[in-house]
DNA sequence: CCGGATCCAAGACGATACTG
DNA sequence: CAGTATCGTCTTGGATCCGG
């Protein structure tokens, strides 16, 4: 029995999964829930620059895929908490690594870009 | 001395890095170079469904960021090879994990989507 | 507090044809 | 073989305002 799924295959269902993971804000939301449940406004404040509309869309998508859970308390004013499901926590492992990689390699990337920029100039 | 970079901050340079990593085809190209250098046509065949234009754009971006190297042999017909740089190989580690996660959790995601679909129907 | 509704802009992505 | 050129589409995402 070989591998069941392969993202390199055009019609493999894993591509839709990858597409969801790769969505612009998924890595932010999943990482933001790393240290426990958070409320909507809390998430919005933590993930700087995200708009309420996009945050809502992202949360709904992740909920549909079973990566986060939404718990609504019957209070007024409203009180809603989002948390990672076990499946979401398993995704957190690679996504945390991606986040860390991005944060740790900023200087290397910027240096490469500067070098590339310079090479382009030299060719003129 | 605290952490230098934080993707949660709106203006942090790590966001541009994350944006590049998150580009639709980055994870495919980096993973495709996992087991050694490949030629353009080889990549295109391996990453099913990618168009030459998009593949070129992705390769150029990754090259500009110092993640892959492009080696051109002075032959006719043309012979060009792409390979991961050390920096690119360091990115391969988390991106390979992302790819594996996507491939391994297809059934879980599909089950969650079906459940979600059913819940939506039940509310009607 | 937690969103929903609406409108709009950008750019990513795709299809196709062509060339050194 | 390894791309370019062109064009069109179409999904994302952003801005803003409103409502339960």
From TrEMBL, chains A, B:
SUPFAM superfamilies: Winged helix' DNA-binding domain. Gene3D superfamilies: Winged helix-like DNA-binding domain superfamily/Winged helix DNA-binding domain. Keywords: DNA-binding, Transcription, Transcription regulation. Pfam families: HxlR. InterPro entries: HTH_HxlR, WH-like_DNA-bd_sf, WH_DNA-bd_sf. It comes from the Bacteria. GO terms for molecular function: DNA binding. Residues 12-110 form the HTH hxlR-type domain. This is Transcriptional regulator, HxlR family. It comes from Kribbella flavida (strain DSM 17836 / JCM 10339 / NBRC 14399).
